[in-house]
Amino acid sequence: MVSLETRRLVVRHGRVGDAPAVTRYVRENQEFLAPWEPSRPPAWFTEDYWRVRLALDVREYFQDRSLRLFLFPRESPGEVAGVVHFTSVVRGSFQACHLGYALGERFVGKGLMTEALEAALDFVFGQMHLHRVMAAHLPENARSAAVLKRLGFQVEGLARDYLLIAGRWRDHVLNSRLAPDWRCDPEDSYLVMEPGSKVSPGRPSDAGGRSGPCDPAS
Question: What does pTM read for this prediction?
Answer without folding.
Answer: 0.86
